């Protein structure tokens, strides 16, 4: 199913990103990837930080295509939208 169909279904909304927004998301992902390797944190916390990095990277892909996930099931929509893109 295409992103256009996801949008038509109401799962995504149109979003016009600006360069600074994408840059900020990349910076958060870089920070979280680095922080998730800190050995003084519990494995659960490290996983949570790594998950946040992955979520930000998926958000970048979605926003680069001109969309953003609706609030309902936001994480699910964001992390699964890559299946509807031709980027990956």
Distinctive features:
single chain, about 90 residues, mainly alpha, two-stranded antiparallel ribbon, 4 helices, 2 strands, about 60% helix, elongated
Task: Describe the secondary structure blueprint for this structure.
Blueprint: H1 3-8, E1 12-14, H2 19-35, H3 43-64, E2 67-69, H4 74-80
Helix pairs in contact: 2-3, 3-4
Short account of what is shown:
The chain has 88 residues and is mostly helical.
Terminus-to-terminus distance: 15 Å
Biggest pleated-sheet summary:
2 strands, antiparallel
Strand order of the main beta sheet, please? 1-2
Q: Indicate how many domains the architecture comprises.
A: 1
Secondary structure tally, helices = 4
Q: Count the beta strands.
A: 2
> How helical, in percent, are the residues?
55-70%
Please explain how this structure is put together.
With 88 residues, the protein is mainly alpha-helical. The protein has one domain (3-84). Helix content is 59%, strand content 7%. The protein is elongated and about 45 Å long. The two termini are 15 Å apart.
């Amino acid at each position: 199913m295409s992103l256009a169909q996801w949008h038509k279904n109401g799962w995504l909304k149109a979003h016009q990103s600006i360069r600074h927004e994408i840059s900020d998301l990349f910076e958060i992902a870089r920070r979280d990837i680095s922080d998730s390797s800190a050995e003084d944190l519990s494995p659960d916390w490290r996983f949570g930080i790594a998950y946040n990095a992955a979520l930000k990277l998926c958000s970048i892909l979605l926003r680069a295509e001109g969309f953003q996930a609706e609030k309902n099931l936001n994480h699910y929509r964001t992390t699964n939208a890559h299946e509807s893109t031709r980027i990956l």
